[in-house]
Design goal:
With about 130 residues, the protein is mainly α. Helices cover about 65% and strands about 0% of the residues.
């Protein structure tokens, strides 16, 4: 055990090792070398463990404004909606807003009453009243 520690201590203080480490770092950052590596990897799928590590590294972190804008544009271009956007409202459902009670629309559409109220307010439609 002491012998290993002695080797490790002497190795970190060795001028030859320090010089070799500097050369290695310089070569690792060489733009031409990085270009060749990137070119070799281009078009090849990443290993599953790398994808999982990237997913775990991103979990819980907010997307940048630019990334959110790009994702939004991609959804619009494909004609898809992100899952959290919910079901789209139909023209028929929109036409009922303000003409019948919110609770009835919620029951018929299978949405929470709060979603119906939010949609009605977003479209600036007055609440249904029996007296009108």
């Amino acid at each position: 055990m002491a012998r290993t520690r002695l080797k490790a201590t002497s190795a970190t203080k060795s001028p030859e090792l320090a010089a070799a480490r500097e050369r290695g770092w310089a070569k690792a950052g060489d733009p031409e070398r990085r270009r060749k590596i990137a070119e070799a990897k281009r078009g090849k799928p990443r290993p599953e463990h790398v994808i999982e590590a990237m997913r775990e590294g991103r979990t819980g972190k907010p997307h940048s404004e630019e990334t959110r804008r790009e994702m939004s544009e991609a959804h619009k271009k494909r004609g898809t909606r992100p899952p959290k956007a919910g079901r789209p409202w139909t023209a028929k459902q929109d036409a009922l807003l303000g003409k019948v009670p919110d609770e009835l629309i919620a029951r018929k559409s299978g949405r929470p009453v709060s979603a119906v109220v939010n949609r009605r307010q977003k479209l600036r439609i007055e609440k249904y009243s029996v007296w009108d």
